[in-house]
Queue: 2 jobs
Job 1
Amino acid sequence: MIVLVINSGSSSLKYQVFNMKEEKLLAKGLVERIGIGGSSLTHQPLGQEPIVTKEDIPDHNKAIQMTVAALTDPQSGVVKSMEAIEAIGHRVAHGGEQFADSILINDEVTEGIRKLIELAPLHNSPALMGIEACARMLPKTPQVAVFDTAFHQSIPEKAYYYALPYEISKKYALRRYGFHGTSHKYVAEKAAQLLQKDIVDLKIITCHLGNGASIAAVAQGKSVDTSMGFTPLEGLVMGTRIGDMDPASLLFLMEKEGMNTEEMNQFLNKKCGVLGISGYSSDFRDLETEANNGNHRCQLALDIFAYRVTKYIGAYAAAMNGVDAIVFTAGLGENSPTMRQAVSKNLSYLGAEIEDDKNNQRGQVEISKENSRCKLFVIPTNEELMIGRDTYRIVKSS
């Protein structure tokens, strides 16, 4: 089965095409600056150089049209016609309590995603644009929604309820949902393979560390807790998101700075995190460079981030009564030996000891010492492949 995987953002659209029989990537691409000047499409068939097309792309309809044209191009395309695409899988950030698994998209599902926009306006809205654009362009092709929150639906009540009046929590479905689910699931399963053990016999902590960051506790192959909450704002300090803090301080700050709720929402999501601490950048690569040059605030931002990650790992080891493996993934987790070292230096009590030479390698690698009781891994995530797998599973069984 040939599956097209789409990840729609508000001004971007990423795609990959897989032959799911062999789980082989055929092509990938990125449409940038949708609805903004200077828009373009970068299309790259497997093993070839990327092809860049610069053109005005006013909306997601045009983005899908250009994607179809690139995939079917006689010279650089990977299918003769879009009839060869047997299914389309979409990443959808928030599934709420309604969607506990990936699902074949119909009018009811579309409406459900639309209703959840209020919980994730920055993410669900563009996902819906991508779904509707594909429905117009390729009306006969089955589409599947794959939710970031679905993997975390196994979290027990004691971990997902907030200490609000119970009736309020139920009335507004206000609870911990968690995100990055496809990534956490993928690397946890890969870690079990590397350990040559059944995942149901393992306790794994997965650390998705990037500009957006979250940690998950995975016991017996199921998520039992995760750091992001009702929205992706809770949990770790991130690139521009604030993470955990005293909610009363927000009321204090709103009064002192004269902010309304929308201004506060933008402030917490866009101006805080390591950007706010450093005053320099939300890019961890920039922070590491500046910290090495003696910039105290950049070093402080890195120290705070590493401390929070270490603290969550400790909490989740306690929650699961042990841990067999800790996995680093995503942009920072995969590419920063310095951050992995900073996080791991205080984990020896768990039997997790990092090996410096291994830690400086790139790609998928075990970075723990040979006699470590708890293994440390770097595993590149592959959310698109997970979406492809779920799309294949759902369509095949429908």
Job 2
Amino acid sequence: MKLFPYDNPNKNWLPYDGIVNYHGVIFSNPDHYFKILRETIAWRHDEAVIFGKHIYTKRMVAWYGDKPFEYTYSGIQKVALPWTDSLLELKTIVEKQASETFNSCLLNLYNDGSEGMAWHSDGEKDLKKNGAIASLTFGAERKFSFKHKESKEKIDLLLEHGSLLMMKDTTQTYWQHRLPPTKKTQQARINLTFRTIEL
């Protein structure tokens, strides 16, 4: 199911079992933030333990927060770095736009369209249950897909440069999401997911 007219930030793009709001482009100068994030974030190749084997991905990640939170996914534990000035600025903008608060941010750097993310839910035990997750996109415009865990119904959104996507309520319980690889772009994409770690 394809969805395109993104003109209502209060519209729920999921038909049931969760809430996804797409605010569209919220920055007048997204190139500015893309450059700063590319140059100032402490990027590292992501790691995972799959079938007992430790692997490194081409995709790069970074983890920041109010405190040195420990966050575990794919069998790898990460410790949050202190906020940079640019991340705090973006956090303030997102919190105002979304009427939510966050205490951490996981960043992903996809170097080109060949890099993506497989189907998953952000349901790690460290995260606030049914808490909001705010996703910012800078750089390449990419398709972002949702799939219901039981009905298998799929929803596709096109995430634009400088845009904000909100996932709320029971979305992580009932839906998976992914960033499918594409041959349509050779440009890099930076994704920031602001979230709340339970204290």
